[in-house]
UniProtKB/TrEMBL annotation:
Residues 30-371 form the Exostosin GT47 domain. Residues 1-27 form the signal peptide. This is Xyloglucan galactosyltransferase KATAMARI1. It is found in: Golgi apparatus membrane. One of its GO terms (cellular component) is Golgi membrane. One of its GO terms (molecular function) is glycosyltransferase activity. It comes from the Eukaryota. It comes from Carex littledalei. Keywords: Glycosyltransferase, Golgi apparatus, Signal, Signal-anchor, Transferase, Transmembrane. It is a single-pass type II membrane protein.
Length: 460
């Protein structure tokens, strides 16, 4: 007969509390995380995919994008030595996100009443295309989104009113500035007024690049072309990137238009043109990759292969402060070099912790390069090899946080969070803090709420 081993009382208490905590977490692992997808008629989402063949898009500088709907909107696969790489079109982040939420999110709520947040499966940037590229509609661009609002008001007034819209979110796969036109503007310029319509002022829009006062939007990573379908595949890639022989000090990938403009003696000096001339002057240390006409977007290996061979990837602002290429370089283990804080640090707090930028990136103020005579190669060469190695490790630790995994295979990523998971976490944090602020009677607090993961709820 086995002798019973006496359990000391503190341990008993601990076991009791432990089992209690297991039971409560089992009881509701979705507490605070329930999302209701508000059903919308197809004209707000799936019908908009048909726009990909619209003749007016021939006016745009990017090719028609019908083929990129394959593989749950990740685009056609690149079938060669590079598994997990696709020809992804970043414009399809909206349908991708919706399908990912619908097919994999464990805490969907069938009822809006029990949900902590409401998702609108509206393809906002696709719906903007006619206003941007179809001339007869240019002067109506202030109407972008109005039909959605009218639909919500007539069919779901209680959802709109219960938290004044502070618990509603959607994806706007674009640059916030493009949707920031004054609705009264006359004549109108390029862009729509989606982010200026008073009806939407309390919604959270997940954008790719936010304005400097982001209480309406929050930036999430641009969609790159790398989408691993399982943890072993992800780890294979990270291992490959970690071991890659990096024979070039630095790389810049950009369009030829900027290369030409940089060469023209009449153009004013700016950070891009300075980078290009410094790079052209040191071909022993620097690789220039020509990504004109979006070729690198749809043929990602053009830039990824050289990125695997470079230690540092230069990420100057272009038309917008942020670049998709910054995320590709992180995935390739190429240490990003930023020239202004709005290129990433002030944008992607949910995905790349602000307090850790020194560990995984280099910052060189653009003024020092353009006007101060600083040579980028000198700055980068001065970083000790051991430190470069440590930074590359940190970069590859960050990499899963900025990629959108391929879903649908029922694969277990064992708690590794990707860009989608972190975007959902960020939205839920933001909505919860806003709803609390309103409940407690401080509606103006919402403008000061810091919704970063590692910060306190309120800045003040
Ligand atoms: C776009 O046009 C092509 C060629 O005409 C056709 O094969 C394809 O099905 C169309 N795609 C959509 C989404 O309408
Ligand atoms: C927009 O311009 C077209 C002609 O280009 C005109 O017919 C239409 O009335 C204008 N719409 C608005 C809202 O001004
Ligand atoms: C936005 O929220 C505020 C409270 O924070 C509320 O007073 C206002 O009516 C809301 N606006 C809309 C359009 O719902
Ligand atoms: C080119 O490099 C040389 C040294 O290698 C340097 O003296 C010169 O200033 C550089 N020119 C530019 C435009 O960076």
């Amino acid at each position: 007969m086995a002798k019973a081993i006496p359990i000391p009382p503190p341990l008993l208490l601990f076991l009791f509390l432990f089992s209690l905590s297991i039971t409560t977490s089992l009881a509701d692992s979705c507490a605070g995380r329930r999302i209701h997808i508000l059903p919308l008629p197809p004209r707000f989402n799936s019908d908009l995919l048909l726009l990909c063949n619209a003749s007016f898009l021939a006016l745009s500088d990017s090719p028609p994008f019908c083929e990129f709907v394959d593989n749950h909107f990740l685009g056609p696969r690149i079938l060669d030595r590079f598994p997990c790489w696709f020809r992804s079109d970043p414009r399809f982040l909206e349908p991708f996100f919706y399908h990912r939420l619908l097919s994999t999110y464990p805490c969907l709520s069938a009822s809006a009443a029990y949900a902590d947040a409401i998702f609108l499966p509206y393809y906002a940037s696709l719906d903007a295309l006619p206003f941007l590229y179809s001339p007869p509609l240019f002067n109506s661009s202030s109407l972008h989104g109005l039909a959605l609002y009218q639909y919500l008001r007539s069919t779901h007034p209680q959802v709109l009113s219960r938290h004044h819209g502070h618990d509603i979110f959607l994806i706007l796969a674009g640059v916030a500035w493009d949707y920031n036109q004054n609705p009264e503007a006359n004549p109108v310029s390029w862009g729509t007024s989606f982010l200026r319509r008073p009806e939407f002022v309390n919604f959270t829009m997940l954008t790719l690049d936010s304005r400097p006062w982001p209480w309406q939007e929050h930036a999430i990573p641009h969609m790159t072309s790398f989408h691993p379908s399982s943890l072993p595949r992800l780890n294979d890639w990270l291992f490959r990137a970690a071991r890659s022989r990096r024979t070039t000090l630095m790389l810049f990938a950009g369009g030829r238009a900027t290369v030409k403009a940089a060469a023209s003696p009449t153009s004013r000096p700016n950070i891009r043109s300075t980078i290009i001339s410094q790079c052209a002057n040191r071909t022993d240390l620097c690789t220039l990759v020509d990504c004109s006409a979006g070729v690198c977007t749809h043929d990602p290996l053009l830039s990824i292969v050289p990125m695997l061979k470079s230690k540092f990837c230069l990420q100057p602002p272009g038309d917008t402060p942020t670049r998709r290429s910054a995320f590709s370089s992180i995935i390739a283990g190429c240490i990003p070099v930023f020239f202004e804080v709005s290129s990433a640090k002030n944008q992607y707090g949910w995905h790349l912790p602000k307090s850790r930028y020194d560990e995984f990136s280099v910052f060189i103020p653009k003024e020092e390069v353009v006007f101060g005579g600083v040579h980028i190669a000198d700055v980068l060469e001065a970083i000790p090899e051991e430190k470069v190695r440590r930074m590359r490790e940190r970069v590859l630790e960050m990499a899963p946080r900025v990629m959108y995994m391929e879903h649908g295979g029922g694969d277990d990523f064992k708690g590794v969070k990707d860009a989608f998971d972190l975007a959902i976490d960020g939205v839920l944090r933001r909505v919860q803090r806003r709803v609390e602020a309103i409940k407690e009677g401080y509606p103006n607090q919402i403008y000061f709420i810091d919704d970063e993961e590692d910060q306190k709820a309120f800045v003040f």
